[in-house]
Design a protein that fits this description.
Helix content: 10-25%
Order of helices and strands: HEEHEEEEHEEE
CATH architecture of the domain at 3-141: 2-Layer Sandwich
Number of helices: 3
Strand order of the largest sheet: 1-2-5-4-3
Strand content: 25-35%
Radius of gyration: 22 Å
CATH superfamily of the domain at 3-141: NADH:ubiquinone oxidoreductase Nqo5 subunit
Low-confidence stretches: none
CATH topology of the domain at 3-141: Beta Polymerase, domain 2
Number of strands: 9
């Protein structure tokens, strides 16, 4: 671990204390795991504390740990927030797990970092994670009548419904998927001399 990461890790441990459930350093990056109940207060501290000053949210994405929930991870759904401190030239990943797998909900951080708005809408649309206090939580990528959350691991690859233009009705109609589910196995075809081109 670099000296810069060590100092950041220590500063976070001093300021957040037992709010940090887990601290992970991998591939030169620091990830801090906190509980859903501490998410909002930790977000404000990360932004406002003069020793931290994580003033910019770079990315926020939903996570579905599916079969790993309960083993390596406390619950199925989580959010990863990538933060940047321009003042101190530091990066941090914050991971928060939703407590209820049947209805995953976390606090919105739009008040802390306004740039989280569309990222939270995307996580809601694709993973079904609800953000309490979000100013305009509605779908952003899928169609208005879309059923389900396409980035969840249990969502079928072909989906549940398909749409097509009906000539008789003169409009687009939705119907059950007519594609048979199948597993594709890629076929690799190579010449006998593959990789030997140009060798004498």
């Amino acid at each position: 671990m670099s000296e810069k990461l060590e100092l950041l890790n220590q500063a976070l441990a001093d300021k957040l204390g037992d709010k940090i459930l887990r601290s992970i350093v991998a591939k030169g990056e620091l990830t801090v795991v906190i509980s859903a109940s501490d998410y909002s207060s930790v977000a404000y501290m990360l932004r406002d504390d003069p020793d931290l000053r994580f003033e910019q949210l770079v990315d926020l994405t939903g996570l579905d740990y599916s079969t790993f929930a309960g083993q390596d991870f406390p619950s199925r759904f989580a959010v990863a927030v990538h933060l940047l401190s321009v003042s101190h030239n530091l990066r941090l990943r914050l991971r928060v797990h939703a407590e209820d797998d049947s209805f995953p909900m976390l606090d919105s951080v739009c008040e802390v970092w306004p740039g989280a708005n569309w990222f939270e809408r995307e996580a809601f649309d694709l993973f079904g994670i609800v953000f309490s206090g979000h100013p305009d939580l509605r779908r952003i990528l899928t169609d208005y009548g879309f059923v389900g959350y396409p980035f969840r691991k249990d969502f079928p690859v072909s989906g549940y419904v398909e749409m097509r233009y009906d000539q008789e009705q003169g409009r687009v109609v939705y119907q059950s998927v007519t594609i048979e589910p199948r597993e594709n196995t890629p076929r690799i075809v190579r010449d006998e001399n593959y990789g030997n081109a140009g060798r004498g």
